[in-house]
Amino acid sequence: MKVTVSRKAHFNAAHRLYRKDWSMEKNQEVFGKCNNPNFHGHNYELIVSVTGEVDKETGYVIDTKILSDLIKEHIEEAFDHKNLNVDVSEFQDLIPTAEHIAYVIWQKLRVLIASDKDLEVTLYETPRNFVTYKGE
């Protein structure tokens, strides 16, 4: 029996969408107000889902306490109240779009969750704008 277990999390972070190799005019044309040189912030909502076979002994796909602890330690502590462009090494050369943030979160968690489980990350940048990444 395959089941998906999900855990919600939250973090606040600032970012700026821009390319260092583009002019200010080109960045403004492409990214608009998200290109604010003084950055801007979001209250991100994160849903991490793990899908796999239910263990016959424990009844778990993954212990939600373990999943919660992984998210807290590796995502919330790394991203919460941070400037993603400045404080998070993964975004030194990667534009911190919602797409890229979801990808980085997936990469950070993928190595920590058993390889026989599927991992999906859904990241809400706003209540109406969200992305989902399931791996390649």
UniProtKB/TrEMBL annotation:
<keyword id="KW-0862">Zinc</keyword>
<dbReference type="Pfam" id="PF01242">
    <property type="entry name" value="PTPS"/>
</dbReference>
<dbReference type="InterPro" id="IPR007115">
    <property type="entry name" value="6-PTP_synth/QueD"/>
</dbReference>
<dbReference type="InterPro" id="IPR038418">
    <property type="entry name" value="6-PTP_synth/QueD_sf"/>
</dbReference>
<dbReference type="GO" id="GO:0046872">
    <property type="term" value="F:metal ion binding"/>
</dbReference>
<keyword id="KW-0456">Lyase</keyword>
<dbReference type="GO" id="GO:0070497">
    <property type="term" value="F:6-carboxytetrahydropterin synthase activity"/>
</dbReference>
<protein>
    <recommendedName>
        <fullName>6-carboxy-5,6,7,8-tetrahydropterin synthase</fullName>
        <ecNumber>4.1.2.50</ecNumber>
    </recommendedName>
</protein>
<comment type="pathway">
    <text>Purine metabolism; 7-cyano-7-deazaguanine biosynthesis.</text>
</comment>
<comment type="similarity">
    <text>Belongs to the PTPS family. QueD subfamily.</text>
</comment>
<keyword id="KW-0479">Metal-binding</keyword>
